[in-house]
Design goal:
Order of helices and strands: H
Radius of gyration: 25 Å
Largest sheet: none
Shape: elongated
Strand content: under 5%
Structural class: mainly alpha
Length: 68
């Protein structure tokens, strides 16, 4: 259904959205969207670090015994 939108269709949608909501509302919405994406990326990165730390804690490392 939406396979043939293309650049002119996207520009038309953007123009209509700008006219309906105004520049201030669209700008605020894009700012919130950007901060949400940043928070999501940070959460994914922190989750990967926690997973790596848990995996490292679960697997005992081979430690050479000292000859004392």
């Amino acid at each position: 259904m939406l396979n043939n939108i293309g650049l002119p269709g996207l520009l038309l949608i953007a123009g209509v959205t700008l006219v309906l909501f105004g520049r201030g509302k669209v700008s605020a919405l894009m700012g919130e969207l950007g901060s949400g994406i940043s928070a999501f990326k940070k959460g994914v990165r922190d989750g990967a670090r926690e997973d790596a730390a848990e995996a490292a804690a679960e697997t005992p490392e081979a430690r050479p015994e000292s000859g004392k």
